[in-house]
Amino acid sequence: MTISASLILLMVSVSAPPAQAQRICEQGETELFICQTDSHDKYLGICAVEDEPGTTWRSVQYRFGDGNKAEFIYPAKAEDGAKKLFFSHVVRGTMYEVSIRFQSGGYTYRLESYGDNASDPPGNGVAGVTATNATGKTVANITCIERPLMFPSYLRMALACDLENPHGKAGCVEPPPHEKK
Asked: pTM, whole model, 2 decimals?
């Protein structure tokens, strides 16, 4: 039995409803990552408030929904986002990979973006979010249908380091680890 991606995201959002309807990123917030998805004109994004230009961020949240209303927000309290959203990145051959991981409602979510420096134009790749259950089975996979707007250096500064990545702390610093393909 396959559960639809939207259903999983809506089930989890019931456990942490927003105080009021929110757009994907509100006025005064910066889109650190955003793309339109293959899921009925929905968008996924990571939004934050920039404290000091290019150096510090606060009130970080992952959001999923249409352009007018977020249906799933994590974490419920934006001030917890810098501790609950985990960043890592790596270069594999000509591919630059960014991963943002978080857990909510018994599911692990991984937002990933892959860009190929050797493509024409440079940066062509794929992005999206995958949800897995406690046994590691994929229960939802939502793909971006466009190249995402993404700021990896800002994501790295705004989020906690994902020490569960294969490179540990080295997977969260500049420059990213390089692996041969």
From this structure: 0.85
DSSP state at residue 12: H
| Per-residue confidence in pLDDT tens, the chain, 181 aa | 444 443 334 333 333 433 443 468 999 999 999 999 998 889 999 999 999 988 899 999 999 998 788 999 999 999 999 999 999 999 999 999 999 999 999 999 999 999 888 776 666 779 999 999 999 999 999 999 988 999 999 999 999 999 999 999 999 999 999 998 7
